[in-house]
Model the fold of this input.
Amino acid sequence: MIDLKLTDAGASLAPDFTLTLAGKDITRNVSERLLSLTLTDNRAFEADTLTLEIDDTDGLVELPTRGAVLALSLGWKGSGLIKKGTFTVTQVTFSGAPDKVSIVANSADFRGSLNVKREASYHDTTLSAVVSQVAARNGLTSAVAPALAAIAIPHIDQSMESDIAFLTRLAGKNGAEATIKNGSVLFLQPGQGTTVSGQPIAPLAITRGAGDSHAFAIADRVAYTGVIASWLNTAVPNPQANSVTLNRKRAAAPPASAAHPRAQATMPAGQAKAENYLMGEADNAFVLTESFNSKEEAVRAAKAKWDALQRSAATFNITLAMGRADLYPETPVTVSGFKRVIDSQQWTIKKLDHSLDNRGFTTKVYLEAMLNNVEYEESISQA
Done:
């Protein structure tokens, strides 16, 4: 357990960074003019974003070209800097008065082949193989969480769809979240507190004294009591109605904020080949509009959507008074010194905003409810 307190870093530390442009160290030139530096570290399929604001009141700053590559390391003097990756310049703005240059750079170049709409089909393969194929044609490597890698993909089409959109859809159907980090497409199991290889991440403890500000929000869970997914059963000549019951196993004493769905399956009259998979109550369920190829695919998609709804039902954001460049998404977090329901909830980091300016170095941590050790029980009966 990493314990985060204000006194850990000491009062004498000063924020520090290094920055290179096309391999050339420009730290000194930038630090003398830096108005602000913001780095957003995302877990989802959004590029990590580096934003720089540089003073140009003397008019001597040269505008970088779009496509130039910046490399950033961030942290505190005397404690070692953390490499935060490389970023491709995508936007340059010159404004005034007073004159300043704003630079936006992304961790992946979305202007390239990832954004090109394609026609492709994938047959008799696995999730890992599909992700690897898509990554390779974009010059990227790939890694898929062990629990997801062997998921069978009998058939899926990519019709006039960019690789970014396709990978996002593929992830959503299979309980994953896709992202690009350091030249690799990653398929993670969100909210589990593990690395892409399945190894547990050391948890972090945050006390109220470590934060400058915080915000907690809870959504109305009654809005969706479950998820409905459907599939077309074309393998059986004369299909019969099946009843499928899926229950998430309850812990011995689950917290009040952790709801668990009930499940059943129905076949509407007049739709003999269309089977519906229902998680939760039928009166107020979230309906997935896509029709799946099998019951297995429908189950995975319904579980994935239900878990996403559960994770986002409660969110908690806290701005750390002393920045932590070593933190990254999916780190499990416990907090203390707030309300009982907040302190008792297990959290994971969804996103981080690192900010460096004349006021110092802070990190805003975006947390969502953690879903760990979730198991399902399934029973099938035939009418």
The CA atoms of residues 322 and 362 lie 5 Å apart. The two ends are 51 Å apart (CA to CA). The chain has a mean pLDDT of 78.
